[in-house]
Amino acid sequence: MDAVSLFFAGDFCSIPPPALIRVAEELKSVIQSCDLKVVNFETPLAPDVTLPPQHYPRFWQHDDVPEFLRDLGFNLFSMANNHTFDWGDEGFKKTKAALGDQSFGAGTYDEAYKIKVCEVKGVKIGFLALTYAAYTGVFDDVLHHDDLGCAYINDLRVNHDIMKAKKTVDYLFVLPHDGIEYIDVPLPETIARYRDFIDYGADGVIASHPHCPQGWEEYKGKPIFYSLGNFFFNCHRDTLCRVGPPYWYEGMCVKMELYEDKIHYEIINTQNVENKALVIDKRKERDEHNQEVCMYLRNKTLYLDYLYEQCKILSNNQEMPIIDNSIHPDSLKSYTKLAVKNWLKVLRKQEITDDFALKTLLRNDTRRNVLMRMLRNK
């Protein structure tokens, strides 16, 4: 039996026409040499509709992206992510129509959790795409499984679905879209959840969402990649815009070969060059950084110290201000801001407890874990 080859890439989004992106022939050749090529289709195609304002910006990408990715060789598209429903049901339907049966991870409740099965060279390979409880479009409410949405990573059915699916396929890969953005190591809770997937029968876990690579490990002989980072991500209208988070323009791809119940893999570092080119990144410092991150995952003491410092920066800038402004203001400025906000709610006949930022924070399991970790001081 010949080996079956897979290629996994991280998040993709391009608002400018993707024809402006020059993809290195070396990278294109690697992608096209594989049998199954998977990428996270991070943002929808925007429909021709007018939607009311919302707290979060609505992300989208150019209508030519599906064909661009197919020309590169991609033939599987994960839609389980926090932006799939940025443009509501109409945005999802337009995107689903463009991606067709090659997409998975979103739709009706049963469609979202359906294992995508591909048979290659007599080998059945299953894919299950999941995402965290995002602002909108995720089946995270146990009382509401109607309408359309994405598969929720902590739904009680997930572990059962993995066990059931593993009886019908030769290999099963879980593709979670979760984690904390912009830090290069996963949370302990993320590590535990992804190992759960292996315990219940998955043969590998390949994650996205943090927008930077987060290292990998082998657990019970099975690979877990905690974040591939961005394959290519330009959410601005032109190619000149640059964003600041570390490793935003450095991604990681994984090439796998499946043969005789074994999984062989290699890491391919990629780089987005000035939003105009996508190349294989052969810089020595990339390999050194990968090794450093993986070292943290192997050394619990160093890992917890490093994680705490990273979470403290994020929490002080994101999570704690929400708590201070919503529950216990600790300065005259924050107290005044809270008082004004509550009076405005009274004037608008809103409930004082209707706090968007706090609800969004508490709904997101992963951000809630960061907050709890900081309140516990590790």
Tell me the major beta sheet. Answer: 9 strands, mixed
DSSP E strands, number = 17
Q: Write down the CATH class of the largest domain.
A: Alpha Beta
In the CATH hierarchy, the architecture of the largest domain is 4-Layer Sandwich
Fraction of residues in β-strands: 15-25%
**How would you describe the shape?**
globular
Radius of gyration: 21 Å
How many helices in DSSP terms?
A: 12
Unreliable stretches covering 5 or more consecutive residues: none
**Helix and strand run:** EEHEHEHEEHEEEHEHEEEEEEEHHHHHH
The N- and C-terminal alpha carbons lie at a distance of 49 Å
Return the structural class. alpha/beta
* Share of helix, binned: 25-40%
Mean pLDDT: 91
CATH superfamily of the largest domain: Metallo-dependent phosphatases
CATH topology of the largest domain: Purple Acid Phosphatase, chain A, domain 2
Counted up, domains total 2
Features:
about 375 residues; alpha/beta; Purple Acid Phosphatase, chain A, domain 2; 2 domains; 6-stranded mixed beta sheet
Structure characterization notes:
Helix 7 packs across helix 8 and helix 8 crosses helix 12 (365-375). 41% of the residues are buried. The protein folds into 2 domains: 4-298, Purple Acid Phosphatase, chain A, domain 2 (4-Layer Sandwich), CATH 3.60.21.10; 303-375, no CATH class. The model has no long low-confidence stretch (mean pLDDT 91). The protein has helices at residues 25-32, 65-72, 88-99, 109-112, 157-166, 188-199, 284-298, 300-317, 319-326, 332-347, 356-363, 365-375; strands spanning 4-14, 22-23, 36-41, 76-78, 103-104, 106-107, 116-120, 123-131, 149-150, 171-177, 204-206, 216-219, 222-225, 230-234, 250-259, 262-273, 277-280. By secondary structure, it is α/β, with parallel strands linked by helices.
